[in-house]
UniProtKB/TrEMBL annotation:
Entry protein name: Glycosyltransferase family 4 protein
The keyword Glycosyltransferase appears for this protein: yes
InterPro entries linked to this entry: Glyco_trans_1, Glyco_trans_4-like_N
Domain spans labelled Glycosyltransferase subfamily 4-like N-terminal: 19-173
Source taxonomy: Bacteria, Bacillati, Actinomycetota, Actinomycetes, Propionibacteriales
Domain Glycosyl transferase family: start-end pairs: 175-308
Domain of life: Bacteria
Keywords: Glycosyltransferase, Transferase
Pfam family name, one: Glycos_transf_1
Gene3D superfamilies per the UniProt record, alphabetical: Glycogen Phosphorylase B (3.40.50.2000)
Gene Ontology molecular function, alphabetical: glycosyltransferase activity
UniProt KW Glycosyltransferase keyword: yes
Length: 353
């Protein structure tokens, strides 16, 4: 079997990961490879060479000065992205030897052109409905094969499709058990919808040290909202690789997960629990499916941010009292990467048959 994975065209499948989508695609690619399945991947150039993948490369669009001078010129990034996915699909239409295409991108073109492919095509929904993805799936209709990373996301798309839910998984060997420590931790993309500033406010309310890790994906938000909260106790430690993150999280008392949007899954919560580190999270989107006792607590979001901070802070002691071995066992039973990969392989075989 050979699988073509379509990911985000701007970011490579390599560490340090730009986000959970890239991390998921990397983990899935490695899991398939380890089971003797060939993998072709379309993503930003520079995927991890240790994965031994075939990268599907598309030549970037070259625009003339005249084209750039057009008064209706959209953002060049949008032009490049659109033609990158068009090139990807054109190659796949004419490829032989690929048994199934698994789309993990957030772009509409792979879905819109999928009925031209000679092989089955399945899309994993990693987000709530967007203005671009929704019409593409609507046009595909009953021919759409879809999975969703949580029941919450499946419900958000239920007006169009009936996704099969396959939760994301965690490599339990990479995210090893840690003995904990005195500090709190937050990890993820530094963007408004992930809410690291709320984690900082929770830590300040509790009088605790907090270490924040992740890519600075929104510098305006970082400089104007998060940076003013940083001090000797609330520190930003950088964009770390997976092993560095595992050590950081495993040596923390609890992990704060603070989404301010309908979080599709919350991979960072599963990763923290795999380290034995209990999670205190805000109950948005798919988070309550992931963060449950004995792995952690998901607290309701209040209308006022200060009330949310107070409610979360009040629950911190209960979270930290959770048994770390029980937290790890919860993650192993529910989010083991090996089981997730096997579920996808079963789906591939079903669609091919």
């Amino acid at each position: 079997m050979r699988i073509a994975l379509v990911a985000h065209d701007r970011f490579p499948i390599a560490e340090p990961f730009a986000g959970g989508l890239e991390s998921f695609t990397w983990q899935l690619a490695r899991g398939l490879r380890d089971r003797g399945i060939g993998v072709t991947v379309f993503a930003g150039r520079g995927s991890d060479p240790e994965l031994d993948l075939e990268e599907l490369y598309v030549e970037p669009v070259h625009l003339s000065a005249q084209a750039r001078a057009d008064v209706s010129m959209p953002l060049e990034r949008v032009v490049q992205e659109t033609f990158a996915y068009l090139g990807c699909m054109q190659q796949l239409i004419h490829r032989r030897g690929i048994d199934i295409v698994h789309n993990n991108s957030l772009h509409y073109l792979p879905i819109a052109l999928s009925d031209l492919l000679p092989m089955p095509f399945v899309t994993t929904l990693h987000t709530p409905p967007t203005p671009w993805l929704e019409p593409a799936l609507r046009n595909l209709g009953a021919d759409a094969h879809v999975t969703a990373v949580s029941h919450a996301i499946a419900q958000r798309w239920s007006h169009l499709v009936s996704p099969r839910v396959i939760h994301n998984g965690v490599d339990l060997a990479e995210w090893g058990f840690g003995d904990g420590g005195p500090d709190l931790v937050w990890m993820g993309r530094i963007v408004p919808e992930k809410g690291p500033h709320v984690a900082a406010l929770i830590a300040k309310r509790a009088g605790r040290r907090l270490r924040i890790a992740g890519p600075l994906s929104n510098m305006e938000y970082y400089e104007n909202t998060l940076a003013p909260l940083l001090d000797d106790d609330i520190t930003y430690v950088g964009h770390l690789r997976r092993r560095e993150l595992a050590v950081l999280v495993g040596s923390s008392a609890a992990c704060l997960v603070t989404p301010l949007w309908e979080e599709p899954f919350g991979l960072v919560a599963a990763e923290a629990m795999a380290c034995g580190t209990p999670v205190l999270a805000l109950a948005r989107g798919g988070i309550p499916e992931v963060v449950q006792p004995p792995g952690g607590l998901a607290v309701p979001v209040q209308a006022d941010e200060e009330d949310t901070v107070n409610a979360a802070g009040a629950a911190l002691g209960e979270v930290e009292a959770l048994d770390r071995a029980g937290v790890r066992d919860h993650a192993a039973r529910r989010f083991d990467l090996g089981a997730v990969v096997e579920r996808y392989i079963a789906l591939y075989e079903e669609l091919i048959a």
